[in-house]
Amino acid sequence: MRYAMAIDTRKCVGCSDCVVACQTENDVPIGFCRDWVTETVDGSYPNVVIELRSERCNHCDYSPCVRCCPTGASHIEDGGIVLVTKSKCIGCGACIQSCPYEARYSHPDGYVDKCTFCIHRVRKGEKPACVAVCPTKCMYFGDLDDENSEVSTILKNRKFKALAPEAGTQPHIYYLV
Amino acid sequence: MEDKSILKEFAPQIEKTSIKWWVFFLIFFGMAWFGVYGLYTQIADGHIVTGMRDNVVWGVYIVNFIFFMGISYAGALISGVLHLFKTEWRKPIMRISEILTVVSLLIGPTFILFCIGRLDRLHFLMLHPRIQSPITWDVIAISTDIVGCFIFLYLSFIQDFAILRDYKELKLPNWRKKLYKTLALGYVNTPAQEKNIRRVKNVMAAMIIAIAVIVYSVLAWIFGVTLQPGWHSTIFGPYFVIAAVYSGSGILIILMYIFRKAYHLENYITKKHFVNIGIIMLIIAAFYGYFTFSDYLTKWYGSVKADKVLIDKLFTDFYWFFILSNYVGVLIPLIIMGIPKFRTINSITFAAVIAVLGLWLNRYLIIVPTLETPYLPIQDTREAWIHYSPTWVEGALTFGGIGLFACLFMLASKFVPIVSISELTEEDPQEEKYM
Description:
heterodimer, A: 177 residues, alpha+beta, Alpha-Beta Plaits, four-stranded mixed sheet, 23% strand, B: 435 residues, mainly alpha, Formate dehydrogenase/DMSO reductase fold, 16 helices, 0% strand, globular
């Protein structure tokens, strides 16, 4: 099993509902976020291309954050979900520095926090909160090993990219372009 | 074994404490307590009282950590090399260098504790260590270094403890005399004991040189193994080692100047010592300047997007820091030490102060601008969360560290003579003289 997410940059309107849903679902402290929306503008009028991306932890196969964690608090769960055991994290910040995607933050309680793909929902067969709430249905979540899953199907039929592939982390958030 | 005339000269240093000494000690002690107050505020209110935020999670604390560790490694390297090569002129300054190593090694690692989010879980580093983490490498390396440097320092103290124990005219309370007796470990300077201690010191000198190089490289790799712009560099290990020796030789010169004045050591610490350590600083300044130039040139010319943003930031937001650290901090020591007629004790000390300040700024430039320049650009972050400015709490803890450093040094100088009597009176065996 390998969970992944595909995000359609052509359907995303940048409403940030995913950010709010995540903060509510996961009780993210005010001022912090586990996911965020970026806007990239290329070209100039009239040939302008705007790309909106909802970004979060890429749940990489080769996670530098997991590799550099001194206590094993950062680890990879079944299904390839990268998690932080908050009771084991000493808050040294090494993982924050090592993540090329800036996906982690230091929680006011001292430990490091990040996107969990809403594992508590996924285990119940539900979709992550950001996916469930998206008004344009631009996010697809599922098991890459299952050929018929929503995410596998869309990746078969659309062009996609990942962020910072040169980092060699093998990320599992795909942006449909 | 004891040379009474030398001991007579140094005895007042540990017997009497002048009012001036107490005034300075209380000032530094006050600084240390200011640091304790800052720490109390940070523990009570959390890291929000510091300037560290979502992006810049390491700030002045890490800068101080690297800086103090660098001084320590430089002290170890200089004392190790001078001891191993039996350099004749080393004797009056060896003790300052050895104490410098241990005192800064005690202060440095405490700074890293201040940026840890959950200090109550610090023992997890021992309970659940993962060897693939650079943080674990650092824990192992620094612990080894602390043990090695303490042993080296203690070995150099044993003979002086024995001399102080045997010097009956010493006007000290009985508990101090008993303490010297205990710490001397029954050393009575038999030829066998003398030979053994010399052998062990030689082995330890060689070991602490190796440990110092390894430990400071490991420290550099904490940064070098990440993909952060400015950090991901193959020369970071040797660059850090060179920078450490640069700042350490500067601090050593400053301490030599202070103790020479304070304890009237003009007959022992002479211009020759300043010039010799200054020349070490000159050579290292050239290497340090070359490494700095090489590192920034490759980043600028390569034009990797994130590196380019970082270099632009260094030449705009951090312009004066960059100039002071990488131009003034290198060129002034190079000019003063490079032209022989400029080499006076005062000017060499001035060059050392410039080198030390420049190096501290260099460490700041390594840490802060990089953290303000994420690998992938982020948007809509609060201005205050991406731009780092240290708060009074970080300032208090920095002052506290400097205060504690000075206090420990002053106390050490009251516990043993600041110039090693045993080294001064001891002749190096002819076969061990290399320089």
